[in-house]
Amino acid sequence: MFSRVAAAVVGLSIVLPCLVYFDQMGLELVCGIVLLIAADEYVLMAVPNDRRARGVFVLVAAGVFAVAVWLPHLLVAMLSVAALVVLLTALFGTHSPDEAVVLGSRLLTGLIYIPVLLSFLPAVRGFPDGLGWILLILVVTWAGDTGAYFSGRAFGKRKLMERISPKKTWAGVVGGVLAGVAAACVIKMTMLTDLPWIHAVGLGVLIDVAGVLGDLVESMFKRAHGVKDSGWIMPGHGGILDRIDSLLFSAPVAWIYATTCGLV
Questions:
Q1: Do 141 and 121 fall within a single domain?
Q2: Which terminus of the chain is more solvent-facing, meaning fewer CB atoms within 10 Å of its CB: N or C?
Q3: Owning domain of residue 209
Q4: Exposed/middle/buried for 75, CB within 10 Å: 0-12, 13-18, 19+?
């Protein structure tokens, strides 16, 4: 427990100043560093014995993220180029069609899963009240995770999806949603005062549920590849990908909700 708390404190001491004092550019820098580590963790998990694929994937993922952040109108073109690169890497870097298809599929999945979804975090920071929106995503996600942990331990009996994540329960989901809604209401009262209450509650529910689904998706990848943690860089937490899996889903959901409902 101490190592988990210490890692969380260190992470917050790095991220929060960048959010507050360096505006969108600070978050882009943090996300860029996170992207490189997470992409490396993913490819080590998905294709652990292919060093060439590892290098190609990290470079291509970095390119996709950079375009998604700074030149989003060129994202489709960049993804097309990235797809060509990873598919050719699979074609010429394997010894059989089956191996090539597996390698190419895993790399293509990773290109959408990490750089594209991660790019929504700095996109949200670019909103007029971007700091409040980023804190909404972070606080709701963390509050939901905490609420799910304690309610699951106290009341959890019925498993949510045991084949993917044996510890998750329906009681945990309910507790997480309630905690997420409460956190969203706090952010609405302190940071996003113009946000209507109905939308604050809706965002609390959607961001928390999206975070749960993001966590389950990463658990699916880990189970498929036979690993417990995506990496080791954060003591008590596993890898970077283990820490951002919820945000990879909650940030796009918040961005889509905010832009679709005309909240920004």
A1: no
A2: N
A3: 128-264
A4: middle
